[in-house]
Amino acid sequence: MAPTPSPVAGLSLEAKIAQMLLVGFRGLTVKEAAGTVADIRDRGLGGVVLFDFDTPTGTYRRNIQSPSQLRRLVSGLRDAAAVPLLVAIDEEGGQVDRLKPEYGFPPTLSAAALGRRNDPAYTKRRAKAIGTTLAGLGIDLDLAPVVDVDVNPTNPIIGALDRSFSSDPAVVTAQGRAFLDGLHDAGVAGALKHFPGHGSSTGDTHLGWVDVTSTWTAMELQPFREIIATGHTDAVLVAHVFDSKLDPTYPASLSKAVITDLLRGELGFEGVVISDDLQMGAIRAAYGYETAVERAILAGTDVLTIANEQLYEPDIVRRTIEIVRSAVAAGRITESRIDASWTRIRRLKGV
After folding, report:
1. What is the pTM of this model?
2. Does 42 reside within a domain?
3. Which of 263, 261, 199, 266 is nearest to 233 (CA)?
4. 276 lies in which domain range?
5. What is the pLDDT of residues 248-285, one digit of tens each?
6. Is residue 212 a part of any domain in this protein?
7. Structurally, how many domains does the chain consist of?
8. Do residues 299 and 253 lie in contact, with contact meaning Cβ atoms separated by under 8 Å?
9. Looking at residue 249, which CATH number applies to its domain?
10. Which of these is catalytic: 206, 240, 247, 302?
11. CA triplet 127, 236, 297: central angle to 5 degrees?
């Protein structure tokens, strides 16, 4: 009997590009998410990211209403995929908690609360509980832990929301490693964020350009460096912060100096690099979408996050595939660059 062909063998360029996309969508059911199901089935969309709140309309229950509803939705999306689908969520605990108790999910603790307790074994248990919940829903990537150092406690997007474990990088390192270990014990991957460090910022990259040149220091790299050195970091999510000391032209998410030279070169990271949402204000304020997509790939990004959460573009998958395909056709991006990301994504997916 002839072997069954692998679904990852001989993918077209367009399908490999589609595997590099992590896209947000609307709908509580497979029927309501029919456009995304078509993107998965017909275009090979590689990943989706789930939200409970829809920012453009200011309404809750975008994708999440109850455990049974969410399990059915994720299962239906997975059924449409020839190549295993990456299903991601921001389930940090505390205020960044998509799976809220009012929807029927277990309560969680913030990173700040775990950091104050500073008991890695306890943090690992709490993270394993989160991972067990995610795995039971069919979610295989938690966009956590946050390993930003709490340099500025009034930081509107990190410190003020209790998303950092501590102002002490050693505590952040120990807690972040324990959190990641807990997710792994439940069979769920994690993503360290927000590289190279968002904890010293005074602004929010969701809203606009954030310059950390005068506040960021190399100390903020310590948790990333030490956790990556353990060799079991699945993914790193890169921030949109700008630091002229690291790159005089581009923010971290679009910077070859930050992603290829610093993260991959100096820190030795070999896993999947994920961009922060490319529709955030920090990017929209300074770059067109096409430029941002191209620059992110050239910088070394493997997975482009398009949350459809700051604004909503139903046709964004087809549009993004065409942007990248055209850049390859014009010689601005090489197909070998796409293949390198596809190889890392395959490793993360285990295919």
Report:
1. 0.95
2. yes
3. 263
4. 20-101+137-143+188-349
5. 999 999 999 999 999 999 999 999 999 999 998 878 87
6. yes
7. 1
8. yes
9. 3.20.20.300
10. 206
11. 150
